[in-house]
Amino acid sequence: MPKKRKWDSEDSANSKKLRSEGGESSDNADITKQSKKHYKNNISWTDAEMLQLISKIEESIPNDDCLSYVSRLEKIDWNDITFKTHSVQECQQVWSTLLKQVRKFRLLREIVVDMKDWVKAPKPSPAKNVVCRHPDKPKQPFNSYMLFVSEKRSEVTDKYPSLRPNDVSRKLGQMFKNLTMKEREEYEQRAKVIRQEYAEKLRNFYEEHPEMIPKKTSKRFKSLQLEHMPPEKPKTPFQLFVQTEAEKEATDASKFAFNQKCREHWNEMDDKNKIFWINWAEEQYVKYTEDLKEYIKLHPKYEPENIKTILTKKEKRIKARCSGKPEKPPHSPYHLFTKMMMESENIQKISNKDSINYISEKWKACSEEEKNQYKIRMKQMWEEYKKKMDQYLMTLPPEERNEVAEEEFRKRKRAKPKSEVSPQNQVRIKLKKPEVPPLSEYKYFLSVYEGKENPSLIWKNMSDAQKAVYKEELMAKKQNYIALYEEYLKSLTKEELQQLEDTRGDQYDTSSESEAEISD
Predict the structure, then answer these.
(1) 160: number of CA atoms within 13 Å, CB side?
(2) Distance spanning both ends of the chain, measured CA to CA
(3) CB-CB contact of 489 with 360 (8 Å)
């Protein structure tokens, strides 16, 4: 019995040499048979398992697939392909081996057969009111931003060759945003001239080809369409402001640049001007809820999207201030101390992460007399608040007055148990120091991973969406750790706080392990 051949680089070279020599087709056929036999012997899977792998990959192909097989393979989630005890890596290796055994190019005869089937198949009827583009019809003109991009794109790509197309577009948008008014005016004038030329060319085109003039949709048809559409979602105050500015000012700037300009104006706007947009947004929201109720009556199966509040916390505070509602004071001496510290200049030099610990330590360092002063000040602020609140309620209509009074009563009732126990009567209980969460998503993945496969390979093969789940869980753990650590600091004495300050550098893991390569 002859020895089993090894299909190595020498055999590959020999096969190429044999293919280059004419008249030796039988030898080439033998080599092909040996190569296929070699690859199949290298696979430890049974035929049934290989067919199951092929079937699972076939099931993952969408019905409207129009990508090349290489692009489609890149989009496949291999975690859905695995079966039995076979891992992602094993499935990929077997698939790569199988892929080498099939022809991946098409013969002309196969293409001709497909063409015949396409010609014989019934064609879809053309859509109504859809006109194919005429080759002589002038193209839409560039606006000022597109003119700037067409001139500067090559300059940016030459200067930053490593940038991806999306990053290049972002860079160009930032450059356009930083243009002076004079430079931007120059591009807008050029765009205006191009628009006028386009309008003239389009008029001449429609004179020569009157059949290409678009047909207008009747107002009755549009109204019938709107009747069957759900009510439009309510806009925020800022969105209403941007919409109004866009209607007043016809500009050629990009949408991003225009929104940035409106954002700057919005941030500089005082409360008296903002309250107009806030009230308008609330009126639109009330109208939306009424229209939505009517629409659901006609369409009971419609499930409306859950809309969050249209006002931000800052906008709610602006509305309360403009309506004369007094601002609520802190609920405890410590909260009053925190508020005053956050407004000081010293805290501006400290990062947000360390500011909580810094304020907590400063509060621990205060004497009992100083803490009592904050307590007295807090009581005075609450007495003033109650007086102002009573005066504010008298200015409201009876219905609104009752609603605000009930809401205020509920809030005070929830806060009452916290204020009944005084700090002097509390028993100091030293809490256990919370465990520091992992510093990165990969370390957190290692802490919860229970599989037998190599975790680094599992992490590399994960999609961005799967990694985002671990990122969100880690963020929640870090926020919980900050809250627990703050309570832990409050339970310590001054001596223990000083000792903790001396050993602060050892509380974080500063290992030199590189995670960037693994996580990427």
Answers:
(1) 13
(2) 51
(3) yes
Q: What is the largest CA-CA distance in the chain?
A: 108
Fold for 227-313, please state it.
DNA Binding (I), subunit A (1.10.30)
Supply 444's token pair. 């957190």
pLDDT single digits (tens) 479-513: 878 878 777 777 777 777 767 666 654 444 444 34
What is the dotted CATH code of the domain comprising 144-212?
1.10.30
Separation between Cα atoms, residue 242 and residue 262, nearest integer Å:
6
- Cβ partners under 8 Å of residue 35, min gap 6: 7, 11, 15
Neighbours of 274 (CB within 10 A): 19
Give me the amino acid identity at 101. Answer: Q
Of the chain, the percentage scoring pLDDT greater than 70 comes to 74
**88-91, Cβ contacts within 8 angstroms, sequence gap of 24 or more:** 88/458, 88/461, 89/453, 89/457, 89/461, 91/53
State the CB neighbour count (10 A cutoff) for residue 469. Answer: 12
Helical ranges in 76-160 per DSSP H: 88-99, 108-120, 144-159
Whole-number pLDDT of residue 480: 79
- The mean pLDDT of 215-223, rounded to a whole number, is 54
CA distance 490 to 503: 17
pLDDT tens-digit profile of 243-257? 888 876 655 556 777
Centroid of chain to Cα 507 = 33
Q: Are 252 and 144 in contact (CB under 8 A)?
A: yes
The 3-class secondary structure across 340-369, one letter per residue, is HHHCCCHHHHCCHHHHHHHHHHHHHHCCHH
Domain boundaries, the chain: 9-99, 144-212, 227-313, 330-420, 429-449+466-498
- AA letter at 437: P
Question: According to the model, what pLDDT value does residue 325 have?
Answer: 78
What is the Cα–Cα distance from 146 to 245, expressed in whole angstroms?
21
Whether the pLDDT of residue 1 is over 80: the answer is no
Contact 31, 18 (CB under 8 A): yes
pLDDT digits (tens, 9 = 90+) for 364-417: 888 888 888 888 988 888 888 888 888 877 777 776 777 777 766 666 655 554
What does the pLDDT look like over 297-321, one tens digit per residue? 887 777 777 777 788 888 888 887 7
| Rounded Cα–Cα distance for residues 266 and 243 (Å) | 13
Q: Looking at the predicted structure, is the pLDDT value of residue 475 above 50? A: yes
Return the CATH number of the domain spanning residue range 330-420. 1.10.30.10
* CA–CA distance, 303 with 287 (Å, rounded to integer): 18
Distance of alpha carbon 408 from alpha carbon 395, whole angstroms: 16
Same CATH fold assignment for domains 227-313 and 330-420: yes
| Sign of the torsion formed by the C-alpha atoms of 61, 67, 69 and 72 | negative
Angle between helices 333-342 and 368-394 in degrees, nearest 10: 90
Residue type, 29: A
Q: Which pair of tokens denotes residue 306?
A: 């859950």
Place of tokens 């993952």: 60
